[in-house]
Amino acid sequence: MTKQEIINELKSKQLPVIIQGAGVVGEVVLDFCNKQGIPIECFSDYSKKASKSQFCDLEVIYTPELRKNYEDANIIITSAAIKDSVDLLNDLGFENWYSSGTLLKDVDISQSQVDVELNYKKFAVENCILCHDGYANSDELFVRSIDLIITERCSLKCVDCSNLMQYYQAPQNCDKDMLLRSIDAFCATIDKVMDFRVIGGDVFMNKEWPIIVERLVDEPKAKRVVLYTNGTIVPREKDLPSLKHHKVLIIITNYDELSRNLTQLVDVCKREKIAYRVLNVDEWLDCAEITPHNRTDEENTQIYKDCCAKNMVTLSDGKLFRCPYAANANRLSAIPDYETDYVDLFQEPLDGRSISETKAKVRDYIWHKDFLKACDFCSGRPLSGNEVKPGVQVDKPLPYRKYETSP
Fold it and tell me: Where residue 405 falls among pLDDT bands split at 50, 70, 90?
């Protein structure tokens, strides 16, 4: 369906119009609809916290409870995770949904009234458009994002880190050659990826990060390279050119006094015209436990379905996992080596028929996985889950059971 066809349907159908997703893209869509003369009834969001307050002066309804308020509606999806949104809306009985990715094509974002940094706004909208296009085009293997673990080391030791850094007894930087091989293998099997999310630990703990970033910005299949840091480390002056590329964005999580070099890092980014965004965090989800729960497959399927991190596909030593939790639990040997929980990109040579078979495995893994065996060790990560104070420090690594052999 074309943009104009969607606009015409939204105007002609005698149904309320709801924007699914109370975030940056949702606000841009609201501005677009206002200019098109499309009245918006309200927002919906999968976060219970978001539904407790208004957004852009409109009510926000918890998406699973939409049926309590509306028998039917036209719903514009703004979430990059469009498959999850479509599946949920179909489960609720809402069939009239539309892609905001189609609506926002060729829209001049700089003219939008959204009060957010322009670079981040453009990134969020571009991400939405590409993710929605990837969902609609089954001929291409599009990956929304890929988390690339480049170090187990971190300058903080947070007791509730969802990436499980608090469990590493002797954290190491990932081997540079293994990282480059993993990137090559991943890029050989996909057609396009919106962003490589370079993570740790803290990425700047690995002094070879510029080599990895330069490889990623040179990758034509990658649209963006995002580095995650905690505001404790300022990159060396000689390494700053690697951050000036138009593809690069730094996300700095602000942990107040723990982010001791935040001001200096921001000043460097401003001075060098490096794209950045400071992320203020008030709470974390309580999801750092590693304990077998002995759930049924049906129970783990629900845990997986509700998880807000299941689309954070993660690359670790040539293995593709659905989330950083599973990847790091595997690295730690804190769970058995469940071979069905990941795709080993090194298992077959990436040429000829083998690459087609690996690509098919990756596509099936990303689009059709019901749950991971690792889910049974996780307490769950729904957006409506229990919250904990972020950045609470621990003096020494946490103990855990280590699995020595495969199941």
Answer: low
